[in-house]
Amino acid sequence: MNGNARRPTSSGIQTEALAHRRDDPVEYVGFRVDGHAVVLNLSEHQRLTPDRSLDLVNHSPTGFEWGYAGSGPAQLACGLLLDYYNDAQVAREHYIAFRNRVISQLECDGPAACWHLTGEEIDAAMATITDDVVALPDGGGPSPPLPENWRTVTRPDRRVFQRADRDHYIVLGEGTDGWLAVLCSQGDRAYPAPLASRTVSDDADVKQAIRALVNESNDLIEPPEGEC
Known about the structure:
plasmid, elongated, 228 residues, 2 domains, disordered N terminus, DUF6166, 9 strands, alpha+beta, five-stranded antiparallel beta sheet
C-alpha cells in the first residue's frame, strides 16, 4: 500500500507544516508473535517499541495493543503519532482521539493475519480529529485552578478535565441531586466504571469537588518528576 511521507509539525497539526513532506512513503504493520503484539515501521525497517512514547505518557509499559479503547492501544496511538510526525506535542494532545478513531478499530485479518496503516491513512484520520477540542488549557468552565498535568476540555454536553500524563478524566454533568463529578479512565467518549465520584449540590462549591478528584488522581499515580 502507498502511504504519505512523514510530515513534521511545530505546534499541533497545522496545514502549513503538513505541506512539507519527504519523498519516501510511510507504512506500519501490526501482527502477533506467540501472542505478543508486534508493530513495525516498514518504511524504516524498524520495530516500534513503547520506549520513546513512555517519556510522554505511561499507559502500558509492557507493550502495545489494538482493537479496543484501552491502555495498550493508547500507548500505541501515542507511539505511532510520535514516530510518524516526530512531534511530542502533536502526539500528546491527539493520541486519545487517534486511539478512539483508528487504533481501536484495527484488526489482524486477512491471510497474513496483520493490519496495515499508511501515512496517508494517518493523515486522513488526523484531519478529522484536529477540529476536536482534545486538551486545550482554559477551555470552557467551570475552570478551577488545576495542576500542570491537567487540562480543561470543552465538550458539547458536559465538562471534561483531562489528565495529560495518564488516561484519567473528570467528567462533570448534571446529576439527580445537583452536579455529579466522576473520575474515570480509558477514553474521552465512553466512560467506564468510575475510580471515584462526588455529588455536589447546586449551592455547593463545584470547583472544590473538581480539585478533590484531581488530587485523588494524582495521589493514585503521581505525575512525572517536575510536574505538579
